[in-house]
Task: structure prediction
Amino acid sequence: MTTLLLIRHGESTANLSRCFAGHIDVPLTGLGEKQAACTAEFIVNTYPVDGVYASDLRRAYDTGAAVARRLGLPVRADRLLREIFAGQWEGKPFSELEGNFPEDYHCWRTDIGNCRTTGGESTAELLARAESALRRIAEENPGKTVVVATHATVIRVIQCQVSGMGLGRMKDVPWTVNASVTELMYENGSFSLGKVGQATHLAALKTDMPANV
Result:
């Protein structure tokens, strides 16, 4: 069995300013760097890590690199692990989306699994690319434990798919918090979930999604 440890990146400057980052390459905040270091400590003390992969966007790559540095491992960047491409929403404050894109943003808030960001990806398209990447990573690392640093919507669509809920019930799946760890197992061609959204190690460093995301 192969174990993938999905880490949501630490707090980014877009998280702090309440903007939809999507593919915009924003860095971690100082708090995000502390979260990444804390999660790296948790992982190296809990799992026998054999490799580190990450989205090529800085906020995820640097989160994965915090683990890699502790273990003397390289980080393998993968564009397919990026956050959903948000089209016209990229870089926009969440507070402006409802007024500027009322129909699409209402879908995002009430039926996210059947949503397409305005001019961007649908959650179904995100699922297809993310699942493909994770399956390839698992098959490249049979029997190993691998860190995969990625993004909130990636983890959420994978949870829906692997749990059997389907994207139609994605609205019922909570967001994972910054720098949380979700176990995704792969065996005999199939994925299964272990512990989801582990974050108790973050203690006072924990940051949640705002209510209007």
Notes: The first strand starts at residue 2 and ends at 8. Strands lie at 2-8, 51-55, 75-78, 145-150, 181-187, 190-193. The chain has seven helices and six strands.
